[in-house]
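Blinded run. Sample ID left blank on purpose so nobody reads anything into the name before looking at the predicted structure. Input follows.
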Amino acid sequence: MDPTGWRAWLELAVLFLIAVHPRTEAMQITSSGPQTVQKAEGETVSLGCTYTPAAGDTGDLDIEWSNVSPDMTQKDHLILSYTVTETHIHDPDLTKRLKFSTDPKQGDASITISALTDSDTGTYQCKVKKAPGVDMRKVTLVVQVPPSVPKCWVEGGEEKGSTVSLRCKSSKGTIPLSYVWKRESGGTMPTTATQDPETGELLIKNHTDSNTGTYVCEVKNAVGQAQCKYKLNAYNPTDKVGVIVGAVIGALLLLLLLLLLIWLLICCCQKKRYQKEAANEIREDAPAPESRPTSRHSSFQSVMGYRTHHGVQYSSVRGNLSGIHESGPIFTAGSNAPSTAGGRTSLKYDHQYGYAV
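Blinded prediction complete.
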């Protein structure tokens, strides 16, 4: 064989030895489990991370588990670190739920997370360092929530001859959710029934008595299932004309009652206003109180109805009218000459002045 052929055989042998010989020149993580793990809420998961150090890796063992941020511009969140001297959990929410599956010094840095919640969903990275070697591995955890107990109801009515819509909805659960309606009692599923597995709606056209019975809705996803039941009835169609007429009559009666209340309120207000105005008029028509006499003389004059007359002097009355003395001649009504009788002047009542003259 010529030298060229020997060289070719030598190169092939070297490549073969490199391919079959295990790599021991650097740290190597040897876990071969799935890159994506799916678990139900509340379960326990083990994230594998076995490793093999190289012969030249003589430094201290250092292990880190991080929650990788979906935003590449943000830092990853360190949740667990291990050194020769201590193990530290950096996420308070995982303090009682996170631990190493075995002794990490024995070549197994796998971790276990218990009581999984929806917030535990994410990508986790295992990084093993033993200077100068270093290696890492990522695994994605998907925590799925089982569907909650759905609610079953009928939308619209259950009248005969109409299209009945049975609805089913679960308020909680990891999508995709699949809905299936089944008839539990009363016979097989009606031939006119159609259902949507994504929305959970069951439509029954031309509803009759033969469709009555108990229907079961079952919802499920990859980690669980739940169901609810509904008892379907069939009612005679309602008299829509009678309902409309009754509603109109009721509205009119309510309107009349409202008008009556408004009229009574107006009448009451007018009555109160009239009583108040009448009371004010009575107070205005009442006579003013008499002023107090300033003297006995003025009081006597006011009682007797006398009015003073120019040229006549009055003295206090004590007894008869004869006590009145004249300071001058007194004329009788209809006469210009004074009248005397026995040296005494006779007095007559004068209607013009309202007193004796």
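Unblinding after everyone has recorded impressions. Residues 240-285 form the longest helix (46 residues).
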